[in-house]
Amino acid sequence: MSRFWSPIVHTLTPYVPGEQPKLQKLVKLNTNENPYGPSPAVLAAMHEANNDALRLYPDPNADQLKDAIAVYHGLRREHVFVGNGSDEVLAHAFCALLKHDKPLLFPDISYSFYPVYCGLYQIDYRTVPLNDAFEIDVADYEGDAGAIIFPNPNAPTGRLLPLADIERLLQRQPDVVVVIDEAYIDFGGDSAIALIERYPNLLVVQTLSKSRSLAGLRVGFALGHPQLIEALERVKNSFNSYPLDRLAIVGASASFGDEAYFRATCDKVIASRERLSTALASLGFDVLPSAANFVFARHPQHDAGQLAAGLREHGVIVRHFKAARIDQHLRISIGTDAECDALLAALHTVLR
Ligand SMILES: Cc1ncc(COP(=O)(O)O)c(C=O)c1O
After folding, report:
1. Is the pTM of this model over 0.85?
2. Which segments constitute the Aminotransferase class I/classII large domain (predicted)?
3. 65, 127, 203, 261 — which has fewest CB within 10 A?
């Protein structure tokens, strides 16, 4: 606390990211990174761009990347917004599109950055409880709302909502912005991007951090009607003209050109997820069906906090949220099969 702070700073409760340990040897299954490296085409493009041109500012509009994303998804550049990680894209969406007289709605169990943005931008919000199976029921979002946001698949549950449910919500709520945060959609769901041309109130946010193995590059994007994109651009250009650097623009663009690598690594993560889910179930865990690159599980006989601490002693880190309804769950990112095996071996000891 300091008397020099602007008043709002006293009220902020910042987001707490998962640990990025300094120790190299840990099996790191706590922040939903991809266990495989980025496409060789991405590394080659960045290597080539690592030259004297770095003295120049990058393209403030990152048109090369917008075009790569637009072509990939069968849209136009005007439908695309890019930012420094989807966290930044989401922050701009909260500021540009989600602050209205009526409250913003999002699930009670969801991405824990949402209430943080509400605090920063002073947005009135109401959380909507997931049902007992930790599912989103879109009927719960059909009442009075200023705007709506949720991840699909949801985080940290991993549960997927069918596209038909999202379309029903868009039909019932044509006058409010609906943001679908698809950070994990490439691991097993149908993207709402298919609905963008028909619903001008839909904004879909995605990231290159998970399925494209580029968490360290910080690139995310949003797709939606050009008027929604214009609102994001206005906020972005009132904040930072150059959120994506030259290396990020070329690396991210190259990622969309290597479909074979993208599909192969996603498929490997999906196969490991199914294998790990089965193995955890045989150890007595209740594992939620996941469409993401993590699983959310609880053990009826063991305290989740103690399990997380025990795993850490064995060199494996997973995420434990000390939050209502989920404090007995662990969120476990999908690693390589070898990393998942190391987790299972550690669990065998910790569960004894
Ligand atoms: C649901 C959800 N949305 C967005 C993000 C942000 O991803 P990034 O800022 O790396 O693009 C995350 C990160 O874990 C997430 O879980």
Report:
1. yes
2. 25-347
3. 127
